[in-house]
Design a protein that fits this description.
Blueprint lengths: L15 H15 L3 E6 L5 H14 L7 E5 L3 H16 L10 E3 L3 H4 L1 H4 L10 H16 L7 H18 L10 E2 L2 E2 L8 E2 L2 E2 L2 H9 L19 E2 L1 H9 L5 H8 L5 E4 L2 H4 L1 H8 L7 E5 L5 H9 L1 E4 H22 L8 H12 L3 H29 L13 E4 L10 H8 L4 H5 L1 H15 L8 H13 L5 E9 L14 E9 L3 H8 L4 E6 L5 H7 L2 H6 L4 E6 L8 E6 L6 H4 L7 H14 L5 E5 L2 H12 L6 E3 L5 H12 L5 E5 L17 E5 L9 H14 L2 H18 L10 E6 L1 H4 L12 H6 L1 E3 L1 H13 L2
Parallel strand pairs: 1-15, 1-16, 2-9, 2-10, 3-8, 3-9, 10-15, 17-22, 17-23, 18-20, 18-21, 19-20, 21-22
Antiparallel strand pairs: 4-5, 6-7, 11-14, 12-13, 13-14
Helix pairs in contact: 1-2, 6-8, 7-8, 9-10, 14-15, 14-16, 14-19, 14-20, 15-19, 19-20, 25-32, 28-29
């Protein structure tokens, strides 16, 4: 037991903001409520949240049994791990350490995947794992030919036998990972020519019959404190057991679980892995909560690709054919026919439903093909001659501004495919996947199930909050004909959840209470509406807001809002146009870029970033790095280059990954300039549909769906500059909408403290203000 939360708090004294936040969160959570916190860098939000949650978990009179941390940024995940270690290092000697677990994917903990052994790597691990587990269960389950103990022992004795054989000087070779040897070979063992996973076999052997999986954990996890992925792997493989199964077994028994939004808001992940955490005994910490709405929108939206539909059609054919051949008296008897009939009977699925679903998917692909070709002929005449230059495209299936039935649903109805065809597709897909997993000796994810699930959701979801379209995403497939659009695109039937507030609020409501926090939540009342917290408040659950500004010395920073012409396309023109507006912005970027040290330049999109970088290369005496839309590895390399060596300028899009969630602590960044308000493309059909849905739900679609998220992007970029009490730096916003009140001003969407700090200046006074600040440095 504890006297108060200070026993858990990991430092000598809390900041005033931390003290207020911790006590507010504890009191609110005791009433089943949520605390919403905007706290600038330096507030100590991670320690605040962990202390509040753990105080409740360790209180025997509290309903809370665990803290569940969700964050969308790896750096923040590491901060929670660091603070957990700090808490444990400073607990009283007679206290047990806080037990905690970091959740990661199978590729990070599977011993074979980590070492690229056993014909498993990070790309194949999910399919291979499921196949190996199923075969291991089949070998050892009811009616199986061997026990789990025998399978694990055989894998061990294969090594011993090799070492003892004396043939050719052979020696036992053991798979090693996380610095520990495992008792198994690097290759995948077999039993009667059937591959199986010895780690999973050992887990099955250790599992008590009808018992809690925690009883299969062979190490003392409660004394370990934070269990990071390498710790989990090392402690598991020493005992020859499966690290991923250990992760699942530990989930409900540690005091803190650190994961990401998928673990709570992705329906499949929650149903198959983390569901036990989602109840009123869990204190939720939602970090980087400004990303909650867009991330959950993606998770609760649905899409199915043309290639997936193609594979599903093929899978249906492979299941239908054995029965058809068996029934046609042509002598083409197949052993699979009995298997198919038995599975269909068990699942209450008929052969007719299989055939109808296959026919439906085939005709659906033909209709997609017709619509894509028609669109390309209209928008890109002669597209076959320039197939490598085609852009990503959206083909709306209804007017984005007028809710109503989509054209694919109408097409299906006219073709005689009623709701039953759509609704039964998931059950059909599930039975097809089971049959093929049993009949075909191949580890792969089946297409029929996700295709069927997407088709079922397409039918079930409404046409007001959901927007349906065909999305064409650039790819390349040499196996398709030269004149086919499928050579350049994968088409997706996409269904966007335009207003995810109900889905977010419903999921949040399952937790006992908690904290939602970020450095950029203002306006908090809008955040609460779009994140579904308003629904909880109407149900009587308290929602309490707190806003904490920068507590670092004001003398260490200067903040400017430059009253420049709006940086909109109508004003600036295309990149390369020598307009007066562009010249104003070019001068402002140049002046800030000449600041001592590293400088970050944030532009509304990548095209404008390219323009800014080209201009700076001619006007500043520093290396200029350009961030382009690229893979994670390229972005990481660029970031490392920026941090190393002499001072540089980094130019990026404000919608990229380098303007939030990246640690620019110390001398990594001395100034940041944001140009324009980074509102996404308003001409996109999807954007129009989201705006329309927000208008119907909240009354002001442009503000809720476009302006507020854009301002948060700008504020995130500025937040990279001052990360510690001894850091000095410059923050500059360039656009009249930041500087003065007007019909389209965005100043009202900044918290009052920031509005006061970002005083308006004219473009010609910016250089003077910059020089004055740096002369005092």
């Amino acid at each position: 037991m504890m006297s108060d939360w200070r026993t858990i708090f990991g430092h000598d004294e809390p900041y005033d903001e931390q003290r207020d936040g911790i006590e507010t969160a504890i009191e609110t959570a005791r009433d089943d409520g949520f605390t919403v916190i905007e706290g600038a860098c330096g507030t100590g939000k991670t320690m605040l949240a962990l202390t509040a949650g753990l105080d409740l978990v360790r209180d025997p009179d509290s309903q809370y049994e665990r803290v569940f941390v969700l964050t969308s940024v790896k750096q923040q995940l590491r901060q929670f791990e660091t603070d957990l270690k700090t808490i444990n290092a400073n607990l009283p000697d007679d206290w047990n350490p806080i037990s905690a677990l970091t959740l990661v994917g199978k590729a990070d903990v599977c011993p074979y995947s980590r070492e690229n052994a056993g014909d498993i790597d990070s790309q194949s691990v999910y399919d291979r794992c499921e196949g190996l587990r199923e075969r291991t269960r089949d070998l050892t389950g009811e009616g199986g030919s061997v026990t789990a103990q025998n399978l694990a022992s055989q894998a061990r004795t294969q090594q011993t036998g090799l070492a003892d054989s004396g043939k050719g000087g052979a020696a036992a070779s053991y798979l090693e990972t996380a610095g520990e040897p495992t008792p198994y070979p690097p290759r995948m063992p077999e039993y009667n020519d059937v591959e199986y996973c010895p780690f999973y076999a050992q887990f099955l052997e250790d599992m008590p019959e009808d018992g809690d999986p925690i009883e299969a954990v062979p190490f003392d996890f409660e004394s370990m404190g934070l269990i990071e992925p390498d710790d989990l792997v090392a402690n598991s493989v020493q005992w020859g057991t499966c690290p991923h199964s250990m992760m699942g077994a530990l989930l409900g028994h540690v005091e803190v679980v650190v994961g990401n939004y998928y673990h709570a808001f992705d329906p499949v992940t929650a149903a198959t892995f983390t569901g036990a955490l989602i109840d009123d005994s869990t204190f939720l910490v939602c970090d980087e909560a400004h990303m909650l709405e867009p991330r959950v929108r993606d998770l609760v939206s649905q899409s199915v690709g043309d290639s997936t539909l193609r594979d599903a059609e093929s899978e249906l054919t492979r299941v239908i054919q054995p029965v058809k051949f068996d029934d046609d008296d042509s002598g083409h008897m197949t052993a699979d026919a009995d298997l198919v009939r038995a599975e269909l009977e068990d699942a209450s699925v008929t052969l007719f439903e299989l055939e109808e679903t296959r026919e439906f998917i085939g005709e659906l692909r033909e209709e997609i093909d017709r619509r894509v070709r028609k669109h390309l002929e209209r928008e890109h005449k002669g597209w076959r001659a320039n197939i490598t230059d085609l852009p990503d495209e959206e083909i709306p299936l209804r007017d984005p501004t007028v809710p109503g039935q989509d054209e694919i649903s109408e097409w299906a109805e006219n073709r005689g495919y009623n709701g039953g065809t759509w609704a039964r597709a998931e059950a059909v897909g599930a039975v097809v996947a089971r049959i093929l997993d049993e009949a075909e000796d191949e580890d792969r994810e089946r297409a029929a199930l996700p295709a069927g699930r997407a088709l079922g959701e397409w039918y079930r979801n409404d046409h007001e909050k959901y927007f349906r379209e065909i999305v064409l995403e650039r790819t390349w497939n040499d196996r398709e004909p030269n004149d086919s659009w499928r050579r350049a695109y994968n088409a997706q039937l996409a269904m966007q959840n335009c207003v995810p507030s109900d889905a977010i609020g419903e999921e949040l409501g399952k937790f006992g209470g908690g904290i939602l926090m970020s450095a950029t939540l203002e306006p908090i009342e809008i955040f609460e509406e779009v994140s579904g917290l308003g629904h909880l408040e109407k149900d009587g659950r308290p929602i309490v807001e707190r806003t904490y500004g920068l507590n670092f010395p004001e003398s260490n920073r200067e903040s400017f809002a430059v009253d420049a012409p709006k940086f909109t396309y109508d004003n600036r023109g295309a990149p390369g146009d020598e307009t007066g507006t562009r010249q104003v912005y070019a001068d402002a970027i140049r002046d800030v870029a000449r600041s001592p040290g590293n400088v970050l330049v944030g532009m509304p999109n990548y095209a404008e970033a390219t323009w800014a970088a080209e201009h700076l290369r001619n006007t500043v005496d520093k290396p200029v790095l350009l961030d382009e839309s690229s893979a994670d590895e390229a972005t990481e390399n660029l970031k490392d280059e920026f941090f190393g060596g002499e001072a540089k300028v980094l130019v990026t899009s404000l919608r990229g990954t380098l303007t939030e969630g990246v640690d620019y602590r110390g001398d990594r960044l001395r100034a940041a300039v944001v140009c324009g308000v980074p509102i996404i493309n308003t001409a996109s059909p999807r954007t129009k549909a989201v705006r329309t849905a927000y208008e119907r739900q909240f009354g002001d679609g442009f503000t809720y769906a476009l302006t507020v998220p854009a301002v948060r992007k700008a504020r995130q970029a500025l937040g990279r500059v001052i990360r510690g009490s001894d850091e000095r730096g410059i923050r500059v916003l360039v656009d009249g909408r930041y500087a003065r009140e007007s019909w389209n001003s965005v100043r009202e969407f900044f918290p009052p403290v920031e509005r006061e700090e970002f005083q308006p200046v004219s473009p010609d006074m910016l250089s003077f203000g910059l020089e004055r600040f740096w002369d005092d440095d």
